[in-house]
Amino acid sequence: SLSVAFQEHLRHLGLQDFPCGLGSWNKSCFHARRSPRRGQPGRGAEAARQEEAKPLGEESPEALMELLRDPHSPWALPPGCSPQDQHLREMAVLAPELVRGSNVFQVLRSLRIVGKGVEEVDKGLLQLQQLEELILSTNQISRITSANLPRTLKVLELCCNAVADLRDLCTQPPPELQHLGLGYNRLCGPLPDKYLTAAFWPNLVSLDLSFNNFTDLLGLVSQLSSLQKLRILVLQGNPLALTPTYRGFLVDSLPRLSILDDTHIEPDERHQFHGLARQPELIRSGARVVVSVGEIKGVPDPRAPQQWEDGSEAPVITYSYCVTYEF
């Protein structure tokens, strides 16, 4: 589950281990901060004097931070971590009480769990009450229940999973979601319940549906046209992208789009395709694919000239081949 992967991720960050957390390497500093002497200055001149007379074996916060930030340090950020992870580790140096126990749930705004074999997004995620960005790419998620997602979520990335149905995701979707990434999944159309409309995603700005199995261009556009804030759309890799009028029809049908398939929509292009949305009859249900064979190994070349000796009565042998493509 995602909760198990998250706890493992926290252990991997070592928020309670040197140079993070609270230990023999910095305990006098935080002890003095919590209990200043009566009538004495707390964290000012007193702190400066403590810096000068630091107990043997302790390090200053600056020195501990340097151990985290130096890429050659043994305590540098582990590979595959996010800027949010680095922020947590630095917070564990400067204010370790903020990331101890369940306190970490209150400060985490971004969570990146990539390639960890997660199959289920469970209710444990609801503990992250300030979470705004959730990256779950390259896992094994086939269904995701929106009731288990924090309402504060603005970015949800599910690229390279096994999502085939949006029903559970659209039960109680996060109302402020701005980006939904569903590329490289198993979605197909048409979607009879219209899960990609403003009724479910009123604030969606960016939508990635690339490399799925959508085939109904007209049906999909009828849903996406209700997304008034949509500016970025990725549909490449779907069968419908092979339609001859694909890009022009989308550009004219969704006039608020700024980027389609990672390419900016220029004013000249919008003018060129003006009026195409009112001609759905131009959209055909078939596609033409041209395949060029560069080289075939292991069989005689039928184009090679036959070399015969003068006066030879040997029979002429002809080769021919048939190549079949299965879609």
Q: Could you describe the 3D structure shown?
A:
- The protein has 327 residues and is of the alpha/beta class.
- It has 2 domains: 1-23 and 61-108, no CATH class; 110-288, Alpha-Beta Horseshoe (Leucine-rich repeat, LRR (right-handed beta-alpha superhelix)).
- Helices cover 23% and strands 7% of the residues.
- An 8-stranded mixed beta sheet has the order 1-2-3-4-5-6-7-8, covered by helices on one side.
- The relative contact order is 0.07.
Element layout with pairings:
Elements: H1 2-13, H2 27-34, H3 45-52, H4 61-69, H5 83-94, H6 104-107, E1 110-112, E2 133-135, E3 155-157, E4 179-181, E5 206-208, H7 217-224, E6 232-234, H8 246-253, E7 259-260, E8 263-264, H9 267-272
Features:
327 residues, alpha/beta, Leucine-rich repeat, LRR (right-handed beta-alpha superhelix), 9 helices, Leu-rich_rpt, LRC43 protein, LRR_dom_sf, repeat
Judged by helices, strands and strand pairing, the structural class is: alpha/beta
Instruction: Spell out the helices and strands N to C.
Output: HHHHHHEEEEEHEHEEH
- Euclidean distance between termini CA atoms: 36 Å
Radius of gyration: 30 Å
Shape: extended
